[in-house]
Amino acid sequence: MKIDRLLSIVILLMNRPLIQAKELAEMFEVSVRTIYRDIDSINGAGIPVVTYQGAGGGIGLMEGYRLDRNVLTEHELADIFTALQSVSSAGGGEHSLLMEKISSVIPPSQTAAFRSKTTQLIVDFSPWGLQRPLEERLTLLREALEETAAVSFEYVAADGKISHRSVDPYTLVLKGRAWYLYGFCAEREDFRLFKLLRMKSLIKEKRSYVRQELPLKELPWSSGWSTPSDTTPVVLHFSAEGRHLAEDYFDYSELQPDGNGGYTVTVYYPEDHWLYGFLLGFGTVAEVLEPEHIRLKLGEIAAGVAAKYNGPPQTKEP
């Protein structure tokens, strides 16, 4: 992503007197023209970067200028390093070069302490198992965001309906262990949120777009999803055999002992197919006590699953 590249360039210039634009372009896998646009952005941020022509020339900081290495403390750099590790684990980009550059700023005498700080907290969002199709979509969408290029795909809605979408991508969002794309949909003439796992035949279009300013306080993945009007209270009981699952998924302060080794907990979630699957995933060690309509819905789904597996497979192998 551009911000990663800009910070990496700044750190490189802090540690090297001169560097060729071609070398930077090869390092970050972009064009030389993109590097010069990055230099303009860095200059615009108040860091005087100049280009020296001729033999032995290159890009460097203005002579006599020194960037204060104490703008960020070592503790703050460690926090940034840890955050980059977390984002990379979720498929949000490869940040090894930037992390290496951050490490290079740390004085040798503090290296051991810095390494200790960056391993005290590890947040790994990556799922179990291979996720190559998702990683490929993330890579393509990051390229489209960088180039302000539109994308198109077939989208499978929650009800199974398939529609073609042409979208101007604005933001990749990791929400609730799932990746989403937020962008302007040409078919709906408005901004929409798309789950990456529901995308099929994703391609980058030749059409470019002019990025608008996003209203950050009104984005759909904010707290509005968890307002009382959008959620349903579910009273869930765990038997003694399932108490370990209750303790895995819910805070101990939310769990009410039932006197028999189990727990009762009230949770608030939007009611959709995800919720039904989540509740059924606890198997027989958990039971929904309220509301009644969700109890009935889960009973219908469970009966359908039982009927499917009580006999031979309905679909024969070719």
Automatic annotation (TrEMBL):
Stretch forming the signal peptide: none
In this chain the HTH deoR-type domain maps to 2-57
- What's in the keyword line of the UniProt record? Transcription, Transcription regulation
What is this protein identified as? HTH deoR-type domain-containing protein
Q: Does the keyword Transcription regulation apply?
A: yes
Has UniProt tagged this entry with the keyword Transcription?
A: yes
- Give the matching Pfam families: HTH_11, WCX, WYL
